[in-house]
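job 3f2a | input accepted
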Amino acid sequence: MNEHNQLGDPRWQDDPNYQAILRKLDTRYGTCTEIVSFGESEFYFTKVTHPHETDLEIDDNGEMLWQPYWAEDWQSSRAICWLLMQYPIRGTTVLDLGCGLGLTGAVAAERLASVCLADNAKPALEFAKINCWNWMANCTFKLVDWKQTDNDLGRFDWIVGAEIIYDQQDWPHLSRFWRRHLNPGGTILLCDPFRRTGRQFRDWVISENWHARFQDAQIPGFPKPINVIELQLSESPAA
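job 3f2a | predicted structure (239 res):
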């Protein structure tokens, strides 16, 4: 596999298993596919055509199965893609937490990392499979709720997440989850579009004994800077 992919041999799209998943997703959600570029690499990216029209999915008891946010093509996700093109992830293990449509995981897999794409929304994992099909040998897919600790994910060198810190109630669950699944010396990489909660997250995460680095990153083609957060476990309690 070449590290810098130029879409490769498109015959993988003729795979009947790929076509079956794509037809199911297109029938249920309506899909479109574009070619996106990060550095020298290009990717077929299949997504929901009208994500704001995605219906809530309800179980037999009237409870929402998952939030509809998985269907969005988040700017923060594309920002992480750009960053992963610069970071030394080849040969490492990467957890794409809240993977959504799977573009970030596809970029990590194309860069020859071993990637686990995880989400609590089943349709997100189906889209992630489609978007990672060309690098399936480097990928696994897991249905994961970060509020639960009884899973067999193991540990990772990198845990990446776009748009996963918007809800303050999730922060304690995320911190516990990260501690359980981050390798010693590993890095959490998050992106957020400067939401108010993102600013509040700064003080909170430092108080939780994480070593934090924050930067305003100007991503090529993006109209505004993006909030990039890198976390590592502190060796001593925070003051």
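job 3f2a | The first helix runs from residue 16 to 29.
job 3f2a | closed
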